[in-house]
Sequence to fold (149 residues):
Amino acid sequence: MSNIITGFIFIVIGIVTFQQTQDFPEYDYSIINSATFPRIIATLMIVFAGLMIIRELIRRKKQISEKINGMPLNRIGILGMAVTVGYIFLVELLGFVIPTALVLVVYSFILCGGRFKFLDNIIIPAIGIVFVVIMFSLLNVPLMRGSLF
Fold:
């Protein structure tokens, strides 16, 4: 029920946002103007909110599982929050790369139900870290450094 209410709220926000962009200035020499980006975001918000409502209506008819890989959802949530809090402290101490790699491995281990799978637990987090480091290198943005590294 909450997804349906949230969907309707986002549809209203999208419609209001789209309506408010009517007064933005337009340019004769270009089809892209100051209202283009907000209108695109508002349109996407309306579309995805509608999809969320439809998905919730279809999902109600099906039985919703309360477990992921045999682990209760509330335990996964608590473990995820604990890992995130630990990550915050580790980033300040060790910098960005090492704690992020560790957290991705731990998250994937939790979501795999405590079973070790090489592809899920090692390769995918490694690809994520390599991608982030490459993007930071291309954009010339320094990675966070900790007090130890």
Observations:
- The chain has five helices and two strands.
